[in-house]
Amino acid sequence: MESATLHARLQVLEAKITALLANYKHKEALVEQLQAENKQLKEQLSNDLGGGPDAPNNLPTTTFAGVSDETKRWAHTVEGYIDEVDQCIAYLEQL
Fold first, then answer.
1. Neighbouring C-beta atoms of residue 92, cutoff 10 Å
2. What string of DSSP letters covers 5-73?
3. Domain-embedded: residue 11
4. How far is Cα 76 from Cα 61, in angstroms, rounded to an integer?
5. pLDDT for 43-87, tens place per residue?
6. CA dihedral for 70, 73, 79, 82, sign (positive or negative)
7. 29 belongs to a structural domain
8. CB of 48 within 8 A of CB of 4?
9. Range of the domain at 31
10. Other CB atoms closer than 10 Å to residue 87's CB: what's the count?
11. Are 38 and 79 in contact (CB under 8 A)?
12. What is the model's pTM?
């Protein structure tokens, strides 16, 4: 009887580990996707604001000369999205 109970518990534990591993792999792929999207958005923002591919991504948008107020608002909105994506990535990395 003990052997059967132990075997059943072992099967349940194995199923939980398998599900956990599958969930981890899914989250890992999601993190990679979000990091790629984040990089793409930063490059797009840099290019849209007049910086070339060599422009640093961490410059505040207000350092670009001749940028209209509307462009600054859009840049601020995009930076907010990037910050949210960064927070999502950090959260998923903690899982």
1. 14
2. HHHHHHHHHHHHHHHHHHHHHHHHHHHHHHHHHHHHHHHHHHHHTT--TTS-TTS-GGGSTT--HHHHH
3. no
4. 8
5. 888 888 765 555 555 555 455 556 678 888 888 888 888 888 888
6. negative
7. yes
8. no
9. 25-94
10. 10
11. no
12. 0.45
